[in-house]
Every structure is written in C-alpha cells, then in structure tokens.
Amino acid sequence: MNSDTKNYFNLGLKFLLVFIFSLVARLLPVRVPNIEPIMAGTMPIGRAYGALAGFSFAFLSILIYDLLTNTLGIHTLFTTLAYGVIGLYSARYFQKREGNTLDYVRFAIGGTLFFDGLTGLTVGPIFMGQPFLNALVGQIPFTLLHLLGNIIFAILLSPVIYRLLIKKKRAQPLPSIINPLEPKTI
Asked: How far apart (Å, rounded) are the C-alpha atoms in residues 7 and 175?
C-alpha cells in the first residue's frame, strides 16, 4: 500500500469513526430530542476535508438514520439537502477563519437557524397541511433545544474531532531524557 493509498484509507477511517459516533448517539433510545452531534461532526469534516466531505457526512447522517429507523419520508429530502448545504458551506466558512471554538459556535448557531427555519417552516405547512403559525410556534422550543445541543457540542466536540481528523505523525520521535547508550541513574 503506497503512502497516498494509506493516507486516503486513514482519512476514510476517521470520517467513518465520526460518522458512526454521530449515528450511534442519535440511535440512543433515551435522549433529549435535537441534542445530536451531526453539526459538531459536519463542521470539522468540512473544514478538514472540504465541501464534498462536509456535504456527504451531513447528507448521509440524516439519510442513514432515516433508513435505519424506517422513517423515510418527504421530510428526509428536505433535511438531507438542508444539512448537505450546511456541510458544503462549512468548508467555505472555515477557509476564512481560524477554526477556534467561537468560530464553531457561530457556525453552529447560523447553521441551526438555517436548518430549523428551512425544514421546520416548510415541511409541515407545505406537505402536512399544518398552519404556518402552528409550525412557527411549535418550532421555537424545538429550535431552542437544537441550538443548545449544537452550541454545547460545538464547544466540546468539534475542536476534538478536528484534531482527530488532522492528526499527523511526528516527523521525528521526541528526544529521550535518558541516552540508551549511556544510562545514568540519579
């Protein structure tokens, strides 16, 4: 296996680990609704691997979950595309920023408001006959929980996930305190 193949394998493995973590967290039977790490994984993946990876992670996170839970529906189309757009934009957003915790929080807030506004205020009124005012009022606690979870995960998980994704091997080992050729005892 050449170094390029090995590098792509390692990148794919890290992507898969973050994906599985996110999926398992969403599949927990007892959890607060909308407290899920999709955004926390999407941001560092888009930042580290680019727009296509950010889109794929976000899109597939929704799609695979809906497939596994047998909840596919018209909402799946809206939610996968909305999160996919967030994944695409994450690459662009983080190109121009340091990627510190505050950058992750800002993106999580904007991304959550975009996602909840697009999905929560369209699917119910357009496809389910829900009155718009009911959708808007019902969306408020939903979005507040979503914001809370995404902000907390942006602070706690996103920087850690990014470091995992970009971790590089050290060029040289750290110098030893004890010279193996001349060991000394103190």
From this structure: 26
Residue 2: strand, helix, or coil? coil
Q: Among 58, 112, 2, 16, which Cα is nearest to 50's?
A: 58
**Calpha distance 39→54 (Å, rounded):** 10
Task: Please choose, from the candidates 144, 143, 154, the residue with its C-alpha nearest in 3D space to the C-alpha of residue 40.
Answer: 154
Mean pLDDT for 167-177 is 54
CA dihedral in degrees (32, 34, 37, 42; nearest 10)? Answer: 180
What does DSSP assign to residue 175?
Answer: P
CATH number (3.30.930.10, 1.10.1760.20, 1.20.1440.230, 1.20.1050.10) of 31-165 reads 1.10.1760.20
Mind listing the pLDDT tens digit for each residue in 39-72? 999 999 999 999 999 999 999 999 999 999 999 9
